Amino acid sequence: MTSREDRTAALVAAAKAKSGKKTDDAEQAIRRLLKRGEPVTFQAVGREASVSHAFLYNHPDLRARIERLRHNARPAQTGTPPTDSENTLIQTLSLQITDLKKRHRTEVQALREALEQAHGENLELRRELARRGTPTPPTTAKTIGPC
User: Fold this and answer.
1) Contact 69, 35 (CB under 8 A)
2) Contact, 27 vs 43, CB < 8 A?
């Protein structure tokens, strides 16, 4: 072997040793995270083992293990289901809101009808004044539009 081939072989061996060491570090990091009850994620393992995300993603065994542990650790539901008293309270408040909305619509409709009637009476009085020949005062009132 030439000295160049020796150096290349030495570099390859060193790279394999370094990769093996980092793989062992990642495995130990996963064990430590599990022992502490912390979530096993790529970020947590990378931080714990001092390896990059790319290293973890590029090693199929590590990647599969982290993905499996991450998936298994996810809770089925994020929140707790409401209790019966909470359900009753929600239903009661919902009914009250529905009733208030209905009353509000009824009151607004009644006010609009009263306003229409007042406008009609005002128009009749102006016409009566015009027929009698009495000058009508200038109108400064503004019509209120729908709410």
Assistant:
1) no
2) no
Cβ of 70: how many Cβ atoms within 10 Å?
A: 15
42-49 long-range contacts (CB < 8 A, ≥24 apart) are: 42/66, 42/70, 49/22, 49/25
* Spatial CA neighbour of 56 closest among 30, 17, 37, 34: 30
* pLDDT, tens digit, 9 for 90 and up, residues 71-88: 887 655 555 666 677 788
Model's pTM, two decimal places? 0.47
Question: What secondary structure does DSSP assign to 16-84, as a single string?
Answer: HHHHHHHHHHHHHHHHHHHHHT----HHHHHHHHT--HHHHHH-HHHHHHHHHHHHHHS-S-SSPPPPH
Angle between helices 60-73 and 3-36 (to 10 degrees): 10
